[in-house]
Design a protein that fits this description.
The protein is of the alpha/beta class and about 300 residues long. Strands 2-3-4-1-17-20-19-18 form an eight-stranded mixed beta sheet. An eight-stranded mixed beta sheet has the order 8-9-10-7-11-14-13-12. Strands 5-16 form a two-stranded parallel ribbon. A hairpin with a 3-residue loop joins strand 18 and strand 19. The longest helix is centred in the first third of the chain and has 11 residues. The radius of gyration is 18 Å and the shape is globular. The N terminus is likely disordered.
């Protein structure tokens, strides 16, 4: 796989999922989707490098000192979804065939829509994953101009983080003006992409079932304190980021808290989506600044 560019903003975006069987989830993201184990801790988190980003998986648990009212758990109702991994591909039919042969269970075959062809799968814990190819030559993710700081995406796929918002413009301002992202695309119906370090936040309104996800409703978080997945932002200087983002209007649940291997805290975006911000302080840790993870590192 091609190298992920160094984080010029000194932050990295990853996608955290709660799993009731981390090893089973690891096998799905490596054996089925083609990722590579970048870090694994016995009884703790496992990080899988996949294209431009990482899937961080760990068991759930109750409130902690840095998120006092939040419980992490696998999806209670997999058909009520507020955020998910969105994988953009160069060749939808090829990916559908390959991943199906490896055991992926798609909700439907790929469906042609106005600007793209797409379908959805679930991971072993019920987390929804969109897989889509833009077919409009003027579209946002057409292969001739994949959004990238450097070159074509490794493996012909790009990972983004999709969130459902009640007010897309309000969310756009948060991810650009507070977190420092850059407007990358704005499309019909409010669809907005914000580039932030190595990945993208895709923001759109919710809605009911569609032909490619027949039973799924997209909606903002119903109970922000019951969380099954979230954006995990790794930083090189926790206190600097905390000070800077607080000055821009971010409201953290607590000040940064020192834990065994990292210092971290949490905030919410305007729709209540949880965001972890953390800095590894153990020199042998998974995200220590001297050796930021890269999808081609051994």
């Amino acid at each position: 796989m091609a190298r992920v560019p160094p984080p010029t903003e000194e932050i990295l975006l990853t996608h955290f999922i709660v799993s009731d069987d981390v090893e089973r989830a690891r096998r799905f993201y490596t054996d089925v989707l083609g990722g590579r184990v970048a870090f694994s801790s016995p009884g703790g988190p496992t990080n899988v490098a996949l294209s431009n980003s990482w899937i961080v998986m760990n068991a759930g648990g109750g409130p902690t000192d840095d998120k006092p009212d939040v419980t992490l758990e696998t999806p209670g109702d997999p058909d009520r979804v507020s955020s998910f991994v969105n994988i953009r591909v160069r060749d939808m039919e090829a990916v559908y065939s390959e991943w199906s042969a490896r055991g992926a269970q798609f909700l439907t075959p790929p469906k042609q829509h106005q600007y793209e062809i797409r379908c959805y799968i679930r991971d072993p814990n019920g987390h929804l994953i969109e897989v889509g190819q833009t077919t409009d030559p003027e579209g946002d993710w057409v292969p001739d101009h994949w959004p990238s700081r450097t070159s074509a995406p490794p493996g012909g796929i790009v990972l983004a983080h999709f969130i459902v918002s009640e007010d897309v413009e309000r969310s756009r301002r948060f991810y650009t003006e507070v977190l420092g992202g850059r407007d990358a695309f704005s499309g019909p119906g409010g669809l907005t992409y914000v580039q932030l370090s190595n990945s993208w936040i895709i923001i759109n309104v919710g809605g009911g079932p569609t032909d490619d996800k027949p039973h799924v409703t997209l909606e903002p978080p119903g109970d922000p304190n019951r969380v099954s997945s979230f954006l995990n932002i790794r930083v090189t200087d926790m206190h600097a980021v905390y000070t800077e983002w607080s000055a821009r209007g971010a409201v953290f649940l607590t000040p940064p808290k020192q834990h065994k291997y990292d210092i971290r805290c949490y905030m919410r975006d305007p729709d209540g989506h949880l965001i972890e911000v953390g800095q590894t302080t153990d020199p042998e840790g998974d995200w220590f600044p001297d050796r930021w993870p890269s999808s081609n590192s051994e």
